[in-house]
């Protein structure tokens, strides 16, 4: 098992994408955000959990979705626990008021977030993107999320996700994944 050595995120900007490091430093609760260096090969949630023994329920994934309404693109980031799947075809689609929605293609998500695939995080996203957070995320004592790069992870109190930029908390946005 790989053991993780956490440190204050504000003292480890190299473990984050530049936009993430800037956004973390500006948080009212920046002192509650920790960073850890990881092998980029274990950046994906399942690999990280297997390598470290971390509880899968403490991991939260950030995914980017896009849809259109009247020819206007509507983009959002979603934050859900790794034990769940976002209900993008119903809950998220209705919330964004689009007819059709899908996950943003990887190359577009990487280019537009300026973050690495496998490290996309809800902290430091483009200013005009809404962040939709499943209410279950707020119930976790702490959540482990991306840092914007594959070589790092961030940890923060789950309840603090409600205080991130452009957040809307949605009850039932994600459904538990059957084992």
UniProtKB/TrEMBL annotation:
Molecular function as annotated in GO: aminoacyl-tRNA deacylase activity
Domain of life: Bacteria
YbaK/aminoacyl-tRNA synthetase-associated domain location: 40-159
Protein name: Cys-tRNA(Pro) deacylase, prolyl-tRNA editing enzyme YbaK/EbsC
Originating species: Branchiibius hedensis
Organismal lineage: Bacteria, Bacillati, Actinomycetota, Actinomycetes, Micrococcales
């Amino acid at each position: 098992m790989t053991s993780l050595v956490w440190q204050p995120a504000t003292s480890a900007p190299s473990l984050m994408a530049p936009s993430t490091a800037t956004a973390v430093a500006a948080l009212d609760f920046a002192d509650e955000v920790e960073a850890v260096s990881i092998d980029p090969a274990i950046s994906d949630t399942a690999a990280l959990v297997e390598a470290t023994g971390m509880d899968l329920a403490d991991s939260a994934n950030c995914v980017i979705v896009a849809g259109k309404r009247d020819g206007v693109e509507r983009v959002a980031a979603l934050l859900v626990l790794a034990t769940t799947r976002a209900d993008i075809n119903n809950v998220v689609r209705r919330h964004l008021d689009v007819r059709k929605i899908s996950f943003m293609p990887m190359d577009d998500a990487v280019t537009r977030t300026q973050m690495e695939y496998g490290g996309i995080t809800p902290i430091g996203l483009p200013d005009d993107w809404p962040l939709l957070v499943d209410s279950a995320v707020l119930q976790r004592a702490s959540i482990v999320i991306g840092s914007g790069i594959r070589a790092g992870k961030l940890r923060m109190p789950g309840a603090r996700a409600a205080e991130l930029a452009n957040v809307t908390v949605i009850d039932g946005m994600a459904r538990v994944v059957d084992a």
